[in-house]
Write a structure and sequence with these properties.
mainly beta, globular, 25-stranded mixed sheet, 14-stranded parallel sheet, 87 strands
Length: 1002
């Protein structure tokens, strides 16, 4: 039989054996060092005996817990293949050691030997690579486009063709909108250029044009072609082409779709028609499609344009002198992680990949942290499905991505629980035609697996969409996206797409998109780039199961939140500022959609806060309410409606008309004030992780609820506020003495004039007429007490006096709210003897004995009144959220003292009170008379004891007071004080006779 000690011993032995068998290598993890000056024959286990090459690292079997450390400041050429796996909690780590810049793993090769071929064309003397397609060339540290025609900045365009032509014989209106299958809203004799023949269905819209005006097909109908479709899926006709050229074997870079640039081999040119290879049957939907021709040595005619010959593997460059500082990519992948788990890569720079910098497939628990990934021919980090096997728990954090031609991060939807956080992504997909053909790339982050979290990333200057997601339980939060869709359109700052076929849609759940800031105010508008091709947040076809809230969006040439055929959506508390359409509801396939508590402000007459199309199918399937909806130019165009049945119409409703006709937004409102210019609006946002303050200068601002904005304004991380400049409001008013009096006073004493308001307002500034001079002036607003100025309510900064005579207006540092019937005093004091204007009259001024040195104190101080009035007034705006006087008294809810006591000081065991705002003071008295709110006996803290001056039966009254000075009713309690009887014994030790005084007894 085993004793307890033996059992314990065997348990620990078993535990140790299990530890070494289950997790081999954990106790003997090794750190290997790699330096460009090392030697692969070394053991690599110290900084004095490092390895040298990526090949050595790639071929070494590693154990869980092992580390590979690359020397900082060193450069390592080639590709790293991850050969071994770590275990959960103890990964294999690839990092850095030493000091200086991150170690660099590069796929670039310098080209230094050149042959002059004439006409400024230089060809590399030798083959520069073994790859077939050169995706990136860096010249003088710049990602450089290959040669193209037309040259950089220009585009060719398809011809407008008279294909699928229908003559129109009926004139209906000037809207230029199709209304039925046979009646068109254009003039007799005009022709409609339809994009293609076929059927169109309600809820779908084929964009076409009439005399360069865009319009929509609105009904089910069939079109029979009567013209010849010259632009098809594999040929285009363009008058830009030189009919004497033949671009056979060159490459066509073309946007057959808005969202994708295709790179297609040209197989023939006949006159002005190009024929190309297109494996996808694409119907060309527009006549303003842009394209370029590239990947041909004949395009080289500008400095540093290049061409790579895939047969000879040589590169040619156009240069006035022999090319220098030329780097070409010669490595496809810099890191390849396939079927390996628990790997960490950190503190390394990756540059010069021709395809993917880091490729991950069929691998779990991969972490990429604090890396710099730049200058890549395709994607920075690519998550591949690999034999359609998924991966789990990929983390990409604290890294930078820049100058990647097809995307920064691309993670397949078979990757689950991916985290992308705290990354900075800039200048992605910036070169037209340099993308991977056949992919809708050029995005910042594409992470489409369920359980994905994308947070705290900054993305700027992107060729297409910022963040692309898919699936369930996705969190996209606290990201900043700025300037996207710079190359392709029909994308979003945040974008998702479920399916093109409604019947095969997936039901999603648990998705949250919140506290993102999306700004797109610098999109380059080239001819052929669709005007409204970008969306702030884009819920494409069949999106569902999303809560979208607290996001901020501003894009003057696009849509704020754009939806097509979506359901089970809660969109609330978002701010959309300055967008063509703030919120767009599209398609009849919409259900269970809530749109509430949003702020949608349009800035001009070409913008609308809401758009519903088709209105008749959507309006009963959404709930829109408690929003703030407005546009500066006209409140009549708040809602833009596209009504398709029973007949076409396009009314533009004011908010009240929208409420009356459709019963939506019944609790919504416009802005609290009207503005004279869109310049009166400003969007302030904080795209950092810390609270941030903004100084608003001397202007007075309100928010969209009509509240005065405190200066400086402080915003919490990833929040925003639309503010309204008082200078552009229509409700600026004056109160006081606006007349210019004739008498002049040069006294230096502080003076004040009373004014009484007859409406609720907000005092913004003070104006005094002065005769000009030097020195400063200081002004303030004071409360009224018994006909005299008392407590300071507001003050201006000390301001230099105008050198010439006239009205001088100075803004208060913080505006002062007043209510109807309230009297306040406007006060001023000059540093020097500046003359001010006055005359005899009432109400008279108050004058203090203090002058400039006394300033504008918190209490005006003693003053005297005289029947003299000065040229001075207050400037104020109407208060849409006036102060509501607090007349509700606090309530004392509990007060407990002992019923008897044998001491004059008794404890108070409980004293509680409540108020509609807050209780500020407490008092206990021995009388039932209500104490004055101005009494000095009030205390901020609840009393815990009370002291009487005599014994007996006593009654105490408990009172409470609030900030408005309201005093509660009291609760009273009795206590009987019985002091104990004290008996003294007096002993006199004295012999003899006589008189004296005995002391010491009570």
């Amino acid at each position: 039989m085993l004793t307890n000690n033996k059992k314990t011993f065997l348990f620990f032995v078993s535990l140790l054996i299990a530890f070494f068998f289950v997790a081999p290598g954990l106790a003997n993890a090794t750190t290997y060092y790699v330096s460009s000056s090392g030697n692969d024959s070394n053991n690599g286990t110290s900084i004095n005996t490092p390895w040298q090459t990526l090949t050595k690292v790639s071929n070494t079997d590693l154990l869980p817990g092992d580390e590979i450390q690359f020397k900082k400041g060193d450069i390592f050429y080639g590709s790293l293949t991850i050969k071994s796996s770590g275990v959960e909690g103890n990964p294999i780590t690839y990092g850095s050691y030493g000091s200086g810049n991150k170690p660099m793993i590069t796929g670039f090769t310098d080209v230094t030997d050149w042959t002059n071929k004439g006409n400024n064309i230089w060809e590399s003397t030798e083959a520069v690579s073994t790859i077939d397609t050169m995706n990136i060339v860096v010249i003088n540290d710049a990602n450089t486009p290959m040669g193209r025609t037309p040259n950089l900045g220009g585009y060719y365009y398809f011809n407008r063709e008279t294909y699928n032509v229908i003559s129109v014989s009926d004139y209906l209106s000037d809207k230029s909108l199709i209304t039925t299958s046979e009646n068109y809203s254009i003039k007799t004799g005009e022709k409609v250029y339809l994009n293609l023949s076929g059927d169109y269905y309600d809820g779908y819209h084929a964009i076409t044009r009439v005399n360069d005006k865009q319009f929509y097909i609105a009904k089910v109908f069939t079109v029979t072609a009567t013209g010849t479709a010259k632009n098809s899926s594999n040929n285009i006709k363009s008058s830009y082409l030189n009919i004497n050229d033949n671009w056979k074997d060159a490459e066509l870079a073309v946007n057959l779709e808005q969202w994708m640039t295709r790179r297609l081999p040209i197989i023939n040119q006949s006159g002005d028609t190009l024929t190309f290879t297109n494996t996808k049957n694409t119907t060309i939907l527009s006549d303003d499609i842009k394209f370029i021709i590239q990947n041909d040595i004949r395009t080289l005619d500008q400095q540093n344009e290049w061409y790579y010959n895939q047969n000879t593997k040589k590169i040619s460059i156009y240069s006035a002198t022999q090319p220098i500082n030329i780097k070409v990519s010669t490595v496809a992948y810099l890191v390849n992680i396939k079927s390996k788990d628990n790997i960490t890569i950190k503190d390394i720079e990756f540059t010069g990949s021709n395809d993917r910098a880091i490729s991950v497939s069929m691998s779990n628990n991969i972490t990429i942290d604090n890396c710099d990934i730049n200058y890549g021919g395709a994607v920075g980090v690519y998550g591949s499905p690999g034999n359609w096997v998924g991966s789990d728990n990929l983390t990409i954090s604290n890294s930078t991505f820049e100058q990647l031609n097809n995307g920064a991060i691309s993670i397949h939807r078979l990757f689950t629980n991916t985290t992308v956080s705290n990354n900075t992504i800039t200048n992605i997909g910036s070169i037209y035609g340099a993308n991977t053909s056949g992919e809708s790339g050029l995005y910042g982050i594409k992470a489409e697996g369920s359980g994905t979290t994308i947070e705290y990333n900054t993305l700027k200057n992107l060729g297409y969409s910022g963040i692309v997601w898919f699936g369930s339980n996705v969190n996209i939060r606290y990201n900043y996206v700025e300037n996207f869709n710079r190359i392709n359109s029909d994308g979003g700052g945040i974008y998702t797409f479920n399916t093109a076929n409604w019947l095969t849609r997936q039901d999603w759940s648990g998705n949250k998109i919140y506290n993102n800031i999306i700004i797109n105010d610098a999109v380059v508008r080239e001819p052929g780039h669709h005007l409204t091709g970008e969306m702030g947040i884009y819920f494409d076809y069949a999106t569902n199961g999303v809560e979208c809230y607290n996001n901020t969006i501003s894009l003057p040439l696009g849509y704020g939140i754009y939806t097509t055929a979506f359901y089970n959506m809660d969109i609330h508390n978002n701010t959309v500022y300055d967008g063509v359409y703030g919120m767009s509801f599209r398609s009849d396939k919409i259900s269970n959609v809530s749109f509430t508590h949003n702020i949608i402000i349009s800035k001009n007459s070409k913008q609308y806060p809401l758009w519903l199309d088709p209105t008749e199918s959507i309006v009963s399937k959404i709930t829109s309410d408690y929003n703030i909806l407005d546009r500066i130019s006209s409140s009549n165009g708040i809602v833009n409606l596209f009504i398709r049945t029973p007949s076409w119409s396009n009314p533009k409703y004011s908010l009240s008309e929208w409420q009356l006709n459709y019963g939506q937004d019944v609790n919504s409102s416009n802005l609290p004030t009207s503005l004279t210019s869109e310049d009166g609006l400003q969007l302030v946002y904080n795209n950092t992780k810390q609270a941030k303050s903004y100084n608003l200068g001397n202007s007075i601002y309100k928010d969209v609820d009509g509240n005065i904005v405190t200066n400086p304004i402080t915003l919490q991380p990833f929040t925003s506020k639309i503010i309204i400049d008082n200078a552009y409001e229509d409700n600026d008013f004056k109160i006081g003495n606006t007349e210019l009096y004739s008498s002049i006073s040069t006294g230096l004493s502080r003076k004040a004039m009373p004014v009484t308001f007859n409406e609720d307002g907000i005092i913004t500034s003070i104006s005094v007429y002065q005769n000009g001079g030097t020195g400063n002036v200081l002004m303030g607003v004071y409360a009224n007490q018994s006909g005299l100025p008392s407590s300071q309510l507001g003050v201006t900064p000390s301001t230099a006096v105008n050198s010439t005579a006239g009205w001088q207006t100075v803004n208060l540092i913080n505006p002062v709210k007043v209510i109807s019937g309230q009297t306040v005093w406007l006060a001023w004091v000059f540093q020097n003897a500046i003359g001010t204007r006055y005359e005899t009259g009432t109400p008279g001024r108050a004058i203090s004995e203090e002058s400039w040195s006394g300033g504008m104190p918190s209490y005006f101080g003693s003053s005297s009144i005289a029947n003299t009035k000065y040229s001075s007034y207050l400037n104020y705006i109407l208060d849409n959220n006036p102060i509501v006087p607090d007349t509700t008294k606090p309530t004392v809810t509990a007060f407990t003292i002992p019923s008897t006591a044998n001491s004059l000081t008794i404890p108070i065991s409980s004293f509680t009170a409540n108020d509609n705002n807050s209780v500020t003071s407490y008092m206990i008295t021995e009388t039932s008379a209500s104490p004055s709110p101005a009494s000095g006996s009030w205390t901020n803290d609840k009393p815990i004891s009370y002291t009487f001056i005599s014994e007996g039966t006593k009654t105490l009254y408990a009172w409470a007071k609030d900030a408005a000075g309201n005093v509660s009713s009291s609760i009273n309690r009795q206590v009987t004080i019985s002091l104990p009887v004290i008996t003294y014994t007096l002993t006199i030790n004295k012999s003899g006779t006589g008189e004296g005084i005995v002391t010491g007894a009570n």
